[in-house]
Amino acid sequence: MSSEQEPISIETREVTKTYGERAAVNHVSLQVKKGEFVSLLGPSGCGKTTLLRMLGGLEQPDQGSILLGGRDVTGIPAYGRNSNMIFQQLALFPHMDVFNNIAYGLKVKKLPKADIRRQVHEMLELVQLGDYGRRAVSQLSGGQAQRVAIARALINRPEVLLLDEPLSALDMQLRLDMQRELKRIQREFGGTFIFVTHDQNEAMNMSDRIGVMRAGKLLQYATPDEIYEKPTDSFVAKFIGDTNLLATRVLGQDTNGIRVECFGYSLLVKTGEDTPVAIVGARHSLSIRNEYIRLGEDAIPCLNKLDGRVIEAVYGGANIRYTIQIAEGFLVQASALHQRGASRFSPGEPIRIGFDPEDALLLSEPMLQDPAQEEGI
Ligand SMILES: Nc1ncnc2c1ncn2[C@@H]1O[C@H](COP(=O)(O)OP(=O)(O)OP(=O)(O)O)[C@@H](O)[C@H]1O
User: What is the pTM for the complete model shown?
Assistant: First the structure.
């Protein structure tokens, strides 16, 4: 089946929401397929929560439309939609036990008691809290409370479950456990989940697709692999993973690739389907992931080689992170696997670095400034 034919769970078409003068969400179009786990990722204030709230009917767009299960639900409030939402504050009913918290949605629908009991038990099994039905919610750990909130949100079998940073209040270890747990639940339940986070690792670990947002715009919507390997612009490249963005000028193009100039070096870059058309003299950012930079003897076979000096070497367990100065104002960050017996380089040491054309990506827009500094990330 082609991706065009796969059923769409939820879709936005050119959705815009403005507060005062400012578009919190600006002409965003995206499609989420049934059974997908999608993350909306971006720095604080980029509009992720506003978009999620519009998907759930808690806010209404000023422009554009939203389709849920193929039906236009624009303008329909949350209670009229077959979606459900989990927030960072879980808001479990404190006076009810776990069973009754989960059963609530079915009781409102006035389902027969036996059906409610059976479905609540199925949900308790799904979230691995089989014996906790009679437990007061005040006696749950943070992770258990999360599971109850998930079970309560799923019991009505929503077309889509919307999650607004539900793990951000948990400590690191529990957060990692809950990431795995949430993925397992989503797989077993077979539902569509849309998850808001500003944590790139969380988004990379969990998602089938990630929507990267900035200042209300959806910059890129693709699989974690694609976003990492083929970011569409310097903001995405910098926000996901660690990368060097070099300011370059196109010298020319031949069958081997595009040749660019950077601080007096002539570098060869591979052309790909997304590579911008090479116009001689045009300025483009070149993105090279820190881990794709080879150091010392490893740089010898590389087609692009530069000479510099180690400024800093930071030991990080599995990796060593080097800052290398190639020229005044030209610093490169490299991350080398820390293996027993492998060469290590010390601050002050001259060093040769290299990279192959296919390990660098020429981005379509010129580098004006460091996007990470601009956003304060
Ligand atoms: N009810 C509102 N009234 C006025 N402005 C709002 C309102 N809700 C959000 N905004 C503004 O819209 C922009 C996007 O906010 P939103 O909460 O969607 O961002 P976010 O990416 O989820 O950020 P965070 O990660 O900090 O929650 C921000 O500039 C915010 O101040």
Answer: 0.88
